[in-house]
Amino acid sequence: MVALLATAAAPALAQSGTPIKASIEKRDLRVGFTPGPYEDAFKAGAAPVLGAQGYRIAYAHFSTGLEVNKAVAFDEIDANVMQHSVYLKAYNERNGTDLVGIVQVPTPPMGLYSRKHKTLSAVRPGATVAVPNDPVNLERALKILRDAGWIGLKANANPVDVTELDVIANPSGIRIVPLEAAQAPRALDDVDFAAIQGNFAIFSGLKLTEALALEKMTAPYINVVAVRRGQAETPWAKAIVAAYRSDAFQAAIRADRFYDGFTLPDYFR
């Protein structure tokens, strides 16, 4: 098989003996997703643009970000759509991988939700608040609690180092409960409040408009399409970027009220 591949990849020769540059371009793309709205957005606006250019899309589904990043790193899939740049950087540093974001995508912000209380002012000493247990998203959750006036938070320049020990004041007397991020929606019946990532909130049927507070999302926390660094300049990777930046993709997102409240990349006009 190796010999056959090598032969197929060798440049063809013209009758004059001059090599003819091979022009075989990848047309089958494998794209991975975790639960959330990113696959639907891709199918609604980006996939039709890619399909019109002759690309065929195979969709792969994963339970966690660790799994889908590993799949890209080991060339099991070509790209994934599920994470922001801060998480991606932390993953690379911890796993010795070299994945890069090539284009931002519409992203729902993390929000503070409750089934037991209607307002933030309902918080009482001893109230339980579920937060993501991974440091990067824990920082986002703690900032929501800080902005609500529930806690004081020590300044930390590196999000991957944030822990509960960075909480330096707790005037509201809340009890912070770290959980696997995907479990937070199911914990709503057991805790007073939960800081839930936007993708998991939407996947579980929650609406952004139901959140008691939403994070003030900044650029590093807008999700990206991730690929291996060595593939970032390939024609197919550039085609994915162009598909997201296309007028057709932007029109599809703006036309669907489902995406109201999402943070939009700066290429949206």
Automatic annotation (TrEMBL):
Protein's UniProt keywords contain Membrane: yes
Transmembrane segments: none
Keyword Acyltransferase (UniProt): no
InterPro entries according to UniProt: Lipoprotein_NlpA (IPR004872)
Location in the cell: Membrane
Top-rank lineage group of the source organism: Bacteria
Any coiled-coil regions, as ranges: none
Pfam families for this protein: Lipoprotein_9 (PF03180)
Protein family (similarity comment): Belongs to the NlpA lipoprotein family.
Stated name of the protein: Methionine-binding protein
Organism of origin: Methylobacterium indicum
Lineage: Bacteria, Pseudomonadati, Pseudomonadota, Alphaproteobacteria, Hyphomicrobiales
